[in-house]
Specification:
The chain is α/β, with parallel strands linked by helices. The chain is built from 19 helices and 17 strands. The protein is globular, with a radius of gyration of 24 Å.
Length: 486
């Protein structure tokens, strides 16, 4: 890899100082390589968590705007947290000369048409969520829209994850489809940012449709910043949960048998994409009778997910999660269900914990801020909020009350409190699971994929203790069909 010019190195050092950040050599290499690719087309830039993707994208935007002074850059961030993070980190752009105007496109500033039109016209960079911008496209002048010459898609894999347990998997994909088509038609360049491997749907959009090149630039200076996390499993045993899991399996076994008959045996051919296929059946892909059975199967399995979150039964995970969090503060506990957050909040904590879930609206941002500022040493939150943009590197422990089926989602969740390789002690994340239930199979399956992740094909991202490494290798995980049939 040829080094960047001395002028570019010096310039990025100055910009790093302006942003009050330490200069990192690999960021100059990444920005230089990305700009070269964007001259002739579109790009997906992959940099691991904690290595400063956001700042690299801002360096790219800065150089792009300097080379195209009449252009605008549109930054699409899939969550409020990421949008706020980008704007907060871009504050340095307003202090350089000539200054770059960064518009935080949000309510209530964007609620008046005339005001919105003027703000976008005056901005060099517009930072927004997909829905916010696409819903106001008619308010933009033709010249403003045509001046968007670079579109940065932040954390692209976040809104392209295919997970049947998430009812909003298509939310961002649908919101951006019209915008993508219009920008592509006028020759706008696209820069996708990600820390994870692309999903199949992500590759279809970015590689097949937008013809993006892929770049994962490596420079030795990046090694010390690479995330390194130890996963420590916590097996829980509750006879009541085991019995209920067996009941759910019996119902699922009967529904699977009937659904397989209704599809003339087609269900047997979808072990690799079982839940995606069942979801398609529930939408009517093979008629109303199959749809009714598929819906019943999905509903039955959602009860299993609730069961593993100690809702409404169970108490073992509540006790163990609270004990772990109390021992290693400041600490965070991720839950799937709001009810579990509430149950944990009722535990006898030394100080009142911060609580964040979707039922609080935007008030959850104040709760996370209370935790970050040290007013509370425990944060209880639902996992739908624990997405990118909410990082807690200062936390001593993170506890996930249950594993998820998607390694892409787990990859991101496990790195919210990540440690870097230059730290003397590796950060540990606790993952709870119910033994002798389907959750044990789920844990085996997703864990096997996580420990196989190697950054730049040589640096393991997740490690296990000898005990759990031996447990993982003992036998392969059973899929849902094999489990309910056993």
């Amino acid at each position: 890899m040829t080094p960047p010019s001395k002028y570019l190195i010096r310039e990025i050092k100055e910009l790093s100082r302006a942003a009050d950040l330490e200069f990192r050599t690999y960021q100059a290499y990444a920005a230089r390589d990305a700009l070269k690719c964007l001259v002739g087309g579109n790009l997906v830039l992959t940099l691991p968590q904690g290595t400063g993707k956001t700042f690299v994208s801002q360096l790219i935007a800065y150089k792009f705007l300097r080379a195209n002074p009449r252009a605008k850059v549109l930054v699409i961030a899939p969550t409020k947290e990421l949008r706020q993070q980008y704007v907060r980190m871009a504050a340095w752009m307003g202090g350089i000369s000539p200054r770059i105007s960064v518009l935080h496109f949000r309510e209530p500033l964007s609620s008046v048409r005339k005001q919105t039109t003027r703000m976008v016209e005056a901005a060099d960079i517009v930072v927004t969520t997909p829905e916010m911008f696409t819903n106001r496209l008619p308010w933009l002048t033709v010249s403003s829209f045509k001046s968007i010459k670079l579109c940065i898609l932040d954390e692209i894999d976040l809104w392209l994850i295919d997970d049947y347990t998430d009812p909003e998997v298509d939310r961002y994909h649908a919101a951006i489809s019209e915008l993508k088509t219009r920008l592509k038609h006028q020759g706008t360049h696209f820069l996708g940012l990600t820390a994870s491997a692309l999903s199949l749907r992500g590759r279809a959009l970015l590689i097949d449709d937008l013809k993006c090149k892929e770049s994962a630039p490596f420079h030795p200076s990046i090694v010390k910043w690479l995330p390194k996390v130890q996963i420590e499993l916590v097996g829980c045993l509750d006879p009541e949960v085991v019995a209920k899991d067996d009941e759910i399996s019996e119902r699922s076994k009967d529904l699977w048998r009937r659904l397989n008959g209704e599809t003339n045996g087609e269900l047997k051919n979808h072990d690799d994409d079982f839940w995606s296929f069942v979801k398609a059946l529930s939408a009517g892909a093979m008629g109303p009778a199959a749809a009714a059975l598929a819906l019943a199967l999905l509903d039955n399995e959602r009860q299993r997910l609730q069961l593993f979150e100690d809702v409404p039964l169970g108490k073992e995970k509540v006790k163990k999660a609270a004990k772990l969090a109390s021992r290693l503060r400041p600490s965070i506990i991720y839950c799937r269900e709001i009810q579990l957050v509430q149950r944990l909040a009722a535990e006898p904590w030394r100080h009142p914990p911060a609580i964040a879930h979707s039922g609080l609206g935007d008030r959850y941002l104040m709760e996370t801020l209370r935790f970050k500022s040290g007013d509370s040493d425990v944060l209880l939150m639902t996992r739908d909020l624990g997405k990118r943009g909410l990082d807690f590197p200062f936390a001593k422990s993170l506890t996930l009350v249950s594993p998820k089926s998607s390694p892409l989602v787990m990859d991101q969740e496990l790195c919210r409190t990540r440690g870097q390789r230059w730290h003397r002690r590796t950060k540990t994340v606790f993952v709870l699971f119910y033994r002798e239930t389907y959750e044990e199979e789920k844990m085996r399956r997703v864990l096997g994929k996580l420990v196989a992740i190697q950054l730049y094909h040589r640096f393991p991202k997740f490690i296990l203790s000898h005990r759990w490494n031996k447990w993982l290798k003992k036998r392969p995980a059973l899929g849902i069909v094999a489990y309910i049939s056993s």
